[in-house]
Write a structure and sequence with these properties.
This protein has about 375 residues and is α+β, with helices and mostly antiparallel strands. The protein folds into 2 domains: about 240 residues, Zn peptidases (Aminopeptidase, 3-Layer(aba) Sandwich), CATH 3.40.630.10; about 90 residues, Elongation Factor Tu (Ef-tu), domain 3, CATH 2.40.30.40. Helix 1 packs antiparallel against helix 2, helix 1 crosses helix 5 and helix 5 packs across helix 9. It is globular, with a radius of gyration of 22 Å. The chain starts with 17 loop residues before the first helix and ends with a helix.
């Protein structure tokens, strides 16, 4: 029998704060320049945190204390995004850029960007491109490298660029708007990688306000993940967690030409492995069982290329019980990425319940699975 065809677009799943999401993703903050983004996280998490601190690199650490003498749980979502810095300004006023994080040239030409000056002024620009008319085939078919590209802010020469406040070393970020798509479960924005992880960590603390829990909970917006998991290392040493969970995007393989391995809109995605980390089997199996108890659908990620903050968290000190939870996302490492509300909401639900349950007894049971 043929499946019955829907007559209406499905309704929005779960409860999300679109204003909070917009503020997180709209903030400009490449690796090494995350202050604007961490200030947004601080605004939203402060009402439910007992302490707000920073490590020396700038990772934000929000502590919500437990009932006393419980284990420490670190929920880490990296707050930095990929982008660029100004590396040169030529005499004609064109601005050369250096990539911060991984970019593919195909996604950049004619795209808008924002340059943030030292004084905090926002200068609009566009990545320059050529018209195709008369372009040789070898040029047309070539993927341009970032080092070949330039940003045009509409100035007649170098002097005008400098009068606009732009200097070598200034941050350059993608310019993109937050959008709810035709189906309201699909949300488009810049910097889901990985503001969504910082959002989820924040949501868990918001959910557990005035709810008793034994563990001390740390929502951490880590910095400099896109250039080598650097903030995860320093933040882990600052927190000294007994258990750590990294929350990050993963590649959604549900578009044409992909292998349909990881899909958006399933629910929770548990990380078995990535290039930097093997998920702790005890924690993986426990969260898998808890998801089933909560009637949350689960899929499993084995990412062969790329890593997450777990790559540094799990091997700190004498080793930390650690796992990655992923949010499938289309079009990451470009100006615009897409996530699904169900993945977001179900991950928040699972982590909220898990954090309520963790005590020393459960932690020891998880550790025993590797002994």
């Amino acid at each position: 029998m043929a499946e019955k065809k829907a007559t209406k677009i499905e309704k929005a799943y779960g409860k999300v704060d679109l204003k909070m999401m917009r503020e997180f993703t709209d903030a400009d903050g490449i690796s090494g320049c995350e202050k604007e983004a961490t200030r947004v996280m601080k605004k939203w998490v402060s009402p439910v945190a007992d302490e707000i601190t920073y490590d020396t690199l700038g990772s934000l650490i929000a502590l919500q204390k437990g009932t006393g003498n419980g284990p420490k749980i670190m929920l880490a979502g990296h707050i930095d995004e990929i982008g660029f810095v100004v590396r040169n300004i030529d005499d004609k006023g064109f601005i050369r850029i250096a990539a911060i994080g991984g970019w593919w040239g195909h996604v950049l030409l004619s795209q808008p960007v924002i340059i943030t000056t030292r004084e905090g002024k926002k200068v609009f620009g566009i990545v320059g491109s050529q018209a195709p008319h008369g372009m040789p085939a070898d040029v047309r078919n070539k993927v341009r490298e970032v080092k070949e590209m330039f940003v045009d802010i509409g100035c007649k020469d170098k002097n005008e660029v400098e009068l606009a406040g732009v200097r070598i070393g200034d941050m350059v970020t993608p310019k993109s708007d937050f959008n709810v798509m035709a189906n309201p479960n699909y949300l488009l924005a810049k910097a889901w990688d990985d503001r969504v992880g910082a959002l989820i960590a924040t949501e868990v603390l918001l959910n557990l306000k005035d709810v008793p829990h034994a563990a001390d909970l740390f929502a951490v917006g880590t910095v400099q993940e896109e250039v080598g998991l650097r903030g995860a290392k320093t933040a882990t040493y600052a927190v000294k967690p007994d258990l750590g969970i990294a929350i990050d995007v993963t590649i959604a393989d549900d578009t044409p030409g992909s292998e349909a391995r990881i899909k958006m809109g399933v629910g929770v995605t548990l990380g078995i492995l990535d290039a930097s980390h093997l998920g702790h089997r005890g924690l993986l199996h426990y969260l898998d069982g808890l998801a089933k108890e909560l009637k949350i659908d689960v899929q499993y990620e084995a990412l062969l290329a790329g890593g997450t903050d777990s790559g540094e968290i799990h091997k700190s000190f004498e080793g930390i019980v650690n796992l990655t939870l992923s949010i499938p996302s289309r079009y990451i490492h470009s100006h615009r990425a897409m996530i699904h509300r169900k993945d977001y909401c179900d991950t928040v639900t699972l982590l909220t319940e898990f954090c309520k349950r963790v005590d020393w007894k459960l932690l020891e049971e998880l550790k025993e699975t590797n002994r």
